Write the structure tokens for this entry.
Amino acid sequence: MSLHSYKGLNRIRKKSGFTLIELILVIALLLIVLMAVYNILFLGLFAYEKISEDSLVAMEIQLVIAQIERDVRQARKPNDDQDPVVRINSQELIIYTDITQDGKPEQIRYLVDGGVFKRSYRSSSNAEYPYTYSGSYGNERRLIINISNNDIFSEPEEVTIPEHTYSPPDYRRKLSLKIVIDSLDIRGGSLEIEKFLMSRSRVEAD
């Protein structure tokens, strides 16, 4: 083999060696880039899922609050001695309103028991005003779970106070509803929603 041919072969070997090292470096850099992209995508998807879960929880709570708001708004006095909205305690609220469309107001109970928000009701014992209620509540539904606060319902207040004894009575009532949920499914671990409610009816349920 001539000296010229040997030098040419040596240059090819050296050139091939550098190409292999460059290839290894490129693969290593590519792996680093892929890992970075994967982490970014993973964190992005995780954040998106958390936001979606938060939005879903908030939407479910808003639907429940909308139902309570509707019940309170349509509440009417069942008899001369009872207000349309009655707070038993900070975790139990009674509302009188017609939800079965039979012309008679049902006695609806919203109750928080063991961190679970429940809704149930019972029908009137008689067909005409004044209405009375007895027996156990039925049609119970679980609305919200993982409630951590105890101050759910505020004390109902009069919307207006009659200026004179001869002024027509105003049976409307206003109150606030506060719900705090603690759950690992919620970003930050908790979610708090507060809503002010008011009944609109100024008259009895006759």
Q: What stands out?
A: The first strand starts at residue 85 and ends at 89. The helical segments are 3-73. The chain has a mean pLDDT of 82. The CA atoms of residues 3 and 9 lie 10 Å apart.
